[in-house]
Every structure is written in C-alpha cells, then in structure tokens.
C-alpha cells in the first residue's frame, strides 16, 4: 500500500459548488475509484487549497490511473469538477492535482 497526498486550489466563487458536488459523488465514479485500487480517499479544504489523501493498494498505479481516465463517467465528472479547481503553477508537467512529498508518517 502506498499513501498519496495531492494539492490544488479551489476557485473561491466555486467552493460551495465543489462541496455540493462532493456531498453526492456519482455512484459510478465511486465504483471506478474502487476498481482502480484506491481506498481511504479524502479531500480536505483550507484557505483556498484542496488537499487529497488516498491509499493505493494495486500493483500498477499508472495503468490504474489510465483506466480511470478512460472511463466515460469519470471524464464527465472531471468536466463538472475542473471549473471549480485551479491547479498549482508549481505542479509537474501532466499533473492536474500536484503530487506532494510525504515527509512524516506514524501508524
């Protein structure tokens, strides 16, 4: 299992919409998240930033992320959510959510 932390900004005028969307995530999106070996997924908000945490239990993260990206329902979900989001200028090429370095963990 590998832990992932990711971050991006939420557009201030879209925060309530983003919260509303995530209070009722489409069931097929949730199923695809599970099919792609993601567990214990949370998104937090603070001062205009969204922090995502999840645990990946699969063997090929890149392949699972490609599978998720190819799913038509997930693509529609992202189309609805992306206008609420603002990626960080410091993200790596190809990232939307900027990957974060884990500097501490304690079980």
Which properties best describe this structure?
4 helices, Alpha-Beta Plaits, single chain, alpha+beta, globular, five-stranded antiparallel sheet
Q: What is the string of SSEs from the N terminus onward?
A: EHHEEHHEE
How many domains comprise the coordinates? 1
Q: How would you sum up the global shape? A: globular
- What's the architecture, going by CATH? 2-Layer Sandwich
In terms of per-residue confidence, which ranges show pLDDT below 50 for 5 or more consecutive residues?
Answer: none
- As a percent range, the share of helical residues equals 25-40%
Rounded to the nearest angstrom, the distance between the terminal CA atoms is 13 Å
Q: Tell me the number of helical segments per DSSP (H or I, 4 or more residues long).
A: 4
Structural description of this entry:
The chain has 107 residues and is an alpha+beta fold. The chain has one domain (2-99): 2-Layer Sandwich (Alpha-Beta Plaits). Helices cover 35% and strands 28% of the residues. The protein has 4 helices and 5 strands. Strands 1, 2, 3, 4 and 5 form a 5-stranded antiparallel β-sheet that branches.
């Amino acid at each position: 299992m590998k832990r992932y932390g990711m971050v991006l900004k939420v557009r201030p005028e879209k925060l309530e919409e983003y919260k509303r969307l995530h209070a009722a995530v489409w069931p097929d999106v949730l199923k695809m998240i599970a099919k792609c070996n993601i567990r214990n997924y949370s998104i937090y908000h603070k001062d205009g930033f969204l922090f995502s945490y999840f645990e990946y239990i699969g063997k090929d993260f890149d392949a699972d992320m490609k599978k998720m990206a190819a799913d038509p329902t997930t693509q529609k979900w992202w189309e609805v959510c992306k206008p609420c989001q603002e990626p960080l200028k410091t993200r790596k090429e190809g990232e939307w959510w900027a990957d974060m370095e884990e500097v501490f963990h304690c079980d």
